[in-house]
Amino acid sequence: MLVRRVNGSSLELYENGTELILGITETVVNGDLLMKLRGILRNDLVYEFDDELSAAVSVGKNVVLDFSDVRYIASAALKTLLRMQQKIDISNSGQEMRISNASDEVMKVFSESGLINLLQFEGRE
Q1: Residue 17 in this model has a pLDDT that exceeds 80
Q2: How many helices and strands (H and E) does the chain possess?
Q3: Which residue of 13, 48, 119, 125 lies most exposed, with the fewest beta carbons within 10 A?
Q4: What is residue 125's predicted lDDT score, i.e. its pLDDT?
Q5: Sign of torsion, CA 80 125 26 68?
Q6: Angle at the Cα of 38 from the Cα atoms of 112 and 102, rounded to 5 degrees
């Protein structure tokens, strides 16, 4: 059973009430909205991720997704990222969405999916 806990600017999803599966914490840093992600972005959790990312993008600030503690990203989460990037591109507002601190394993998924050429990454060539 999946348990959802909200505490201020943090969302945590637990499996069986005790094991953290996905955590999302939002803070504003230097005018950007930083979304710190922890855990795994499974297909069955993508609706929660989509809701949080949609809300962040709708604020109009640049959005930085800190992937330093993400161990796995599923295809549905990739689709969410692509859809949000397309929304930003269409708005032509100058807003940016950037992914930072992704592990080599997660970067491999971005590369194999072709999204490495469509999304912005910090600290990567």
Answers
A1: no
A2: 3, 7
A3: 125
A4: 47
A5: positive
A6: 35
- In total, how many domains does the chain have? 1
Q: What span, in angstroms and rounded, lies between the C-alpha atoms of 64 and 26?
A: 10
Q: Which of 85, 113, 83, 107 is nearest to 98 (CA)?
A: 85
pLDDT higher than threshold 80 for residue 59: yes
Q: How many CB atoms lie within 10 A of CB 36?
A: 21
Kindly report the backbone phi and psi dihedral angles of residue 109, in degrees, each rounded to the nearest multiple of 5, phi listed first: -65, -45
- Residue ranges of the alpha helices (H) in the chain? 46-58, 75-91, 104-113
pLDDT (mean) for 23-52: 94
- The dihedral built from the CA positions of residue 28, 29, 32 and 33, taken in this order, carries a sign that is negative
Token pair of 24 as six digits: 């999302």
Domain range for residue 109?
Answer: 24-122
For residue 83, being part of any structural domain is answered with yes
What's 108's domain CATH number?
Answer: 3.30.750.24
